[in-house]
Amino acid sequence: MTDPYKILGVAKTADEAVIRKAYRNIAKKYHPDVRPNDAAAEDKFKQASAAFALLNNKEERAKYDRGEIDAQGNAKGPFAGAGAQPGGFQGGFAPGGFEDISDVLSELFGRRTGMGGRQHFSQRGEDQNFLLDIDMVEAILGGSRQVRLADGKTLKIKVPAGVQSGRSLRLKGQGGAGMGGGPPGDAIVELRVKPHRFYQLDGNRVRLDLPITLDEAVLGAKVKVPTPDGAVSLRIPANTSSGQIFRVKGKGGSTTKGVRGDLLVRVMIVLPDAVDKKLVAFLEQEKKSPSDEVRRRFFS
């Protein structure tokens, strides 16, 4: 066996948790039950087991780090013959190391191996995570989407109404393949609601800034308003100020139980790009009170 640190892919300063994790990853990939009849994989597993057994034993690891023993546990240089075990512990199990290896394999495969022979292990496949962007209207009303999984398979999933950004949908048995006959994992699809170009979500309410013209604000009008469900008519009363909010009941967001909120429409007076000279002349003629009259409350 070469350098046990290199075999496990860890630094010489690695602590027990890092070493254990590195061995778990190798065992998960190269254990004979995962890759049966693969001599190369079995050899890698045996080397990793031997490396883990050495580095997981504090006393033997310290001796190795001081150069007193080699990777097989054999004494080196002046330490040869001074209590070293003949032949070291080739085969991968330093004194006290086998139980820890057995514990790791038990954690991985759900069954504990014994010295008398290898038992069959099985492990559930890993869950696989996916991110799916949906638009705000789809999040409010619900719908269905096609998702492509890691294996290339395409599935149709249902997007529930009232879903919030960050919610995950679990697709049973659509994740990574199991090992040693174990069941497959799940596919976990996280939903992310994209910002809308004019709607703003506020709980189960939706906010909308609606432009109106000056004559609509002064004279009143019926205007068309977009909602997640389609356009509706909204009556703007005469003498409406910019910033006034109107409520359209039941046309807002949705809870997961299907309860719809309201659409809150804030009207914003938009003046024409070109200056209307007749309008300017009219306003100059009709101007009756100082302009700061509307701001008096801020300074009284």
From TrEMBL:
GO molecular function annotations of the record: unfolded protein binding
GO CC list: cytoplasm
Domain J residue range list: 3-68
Secretion signal span: none
Xref: Pfam families: DnaJ, DnaJ_C
Statement: the UniProt record of this protein carries the keyword Chaperone: yes
Record-linked CDD domains: DnaJ, DnaJ_C
Keyword line: Chaperone
One GO-annotated biological process of the protein: protein refolding
InterPro entries, A to Z: DnaJ_C, DnaJ_domain, DnaJ_domain_CS, HSP40/DnaJ_pept-bd, J_dom_sf
SMART domains attached to this UniProt entry: DnaJ
Keyword Chaperone in record: yes
PANTHER family the record matches: DNAJ HOMOLOG 1, MITOCHONDRIAL-RELATED
Protein name (database record): DnaJ-class molecular chaperone CbpA
Protein source organism: hydrothermal vent metagenome
